[in-house]
Design a protein that fits this description.
The complex is a heterodimer of chains A (111) and B (114).
Chain A: E1 5-7, E2 10-14, E3 19-24, E4 32-37, E5 44-49, E6 55-58, E7 61-65, E8 71-76, E9 85-92, E10 99-101, E11 105-110
Parallel strand pairs in A: 2-11
Antiparallel strand pairs in A: 1-3, 3-8, 4-5, 4-9, 6-7, 7-8, 9-10, 9-11
Chain B: E1 4-7, E2 10-13, E3 19-25, E4 31-37, E5 43-51, E6 54-57, E7 64-66, E8 76-78, E9 87-94, E10 104-105, E11 109-113
Parallel strand pairs in B: 2-11
Antiparallel strand pairs in B: 1-3, 3-8, 4-5, 4-9, 5-6, 7-8, 9-10, 9-11
The chains are: A mainly beta (111), B mainly beta (114).
């Protein structure tokens, strides 16, 4: 069974700090995605990484896909209160059309 | 383009009652999904559909039923509500072409069963 575990589960930081969120699995994924979910809303896709070792940047957010395609990380530089939300990683279930979601990291950024 | 819409936004049910959660998308997506999200948790797939007339079970289908008579609509039916079905329900859609797809989510339905 493919599983995606995220760490940390909760993160509470001050504005301006840097942070990294991790998404790990013992299984190989063909790609991994990161979604952000704000309170009272559905998740919204931030990025998809498809190549082992790939790094993608989205303004202050840097996403990396592990060389072995078993893990991914999300690094936020100089966090802002607008970054507050639930961050979810997701990957396709092998040989299906379904996604499996990680357990989520809840980030709170205080002004 | 409204995207994915869900109704109702909130609902309180008594044990044993039934209800239908509505989901509509206007993006002509072939794939549609129902997830539940329990407090502090990720998303668990309940049912999904790859096109009109075709549905399949996800990870947690017990206590739910679905139908897909049109491309746009994918209602989720709870027949005998139980407290364990208290959760936030999200509908999503995607167009599965080549490569990893993007799932577009609705705003969710918050359901409480008392």
């Amino acid at each position: 069974t493919q599983l995606l575990e995220q760490s940390p589960q909760f993160l509470s930081i001050q504005e301006g700090e840097n942070l990294t969120v991790y998404c790990n699995s013992s299984s190989v994924f063909s790609s991994l995605q990161w979604y952000r979910q704000e309170p009272g809303e559905g998740p919204v896709l931030l990025v998809t990484v498809v190549t082992g070792g790939e790094v993608k940047k989205l303004k202050r957010l840097t996403f990396q896909f592990g060389d072995a395609r078993k893990d991914s990380s999300l690094h936020i530089t100089a966090a802002q209160p607008g970054d507050t939300g639930l961050y979810l990683c997701a990957g396709p279930v092998r040989s299906t059309d379904k996604l499996i979601f990680g357990t989520g990291t809840r980030l709170q950024v205080f002004p | 383009n409204a995207g994915v819409t869900q109704t109702p936004k909130f609902r309180i049910l008594k044990i044993g009652q039934s209800m239908t959660l509505q989901c509509t998308q206007d993006m002509n997506h072939n794939y549609m999904y129902w997830y539940r999200q329990d407090p502090g948790m990720g998303l668990k797939l309940i049912y999904y559909s790859v096109g009109a007339g075709i549905t399949d079970k996800g990870e947690v289908p017990n206590g739910y039923n679905v139908s897909r008579s049109t491309t746009e609509d994918f209602p989720l039916r709870l027949e005998l509500a139980a407290p364990s079905q208290t959760s936030v329900y999200f509908c999503a859609s995607s167009y599965l072409g080549q490569g990893p797809d993007t799932q577009y989510f609705g705003p969710g339905t918050r359901l409480t069963v008392l």
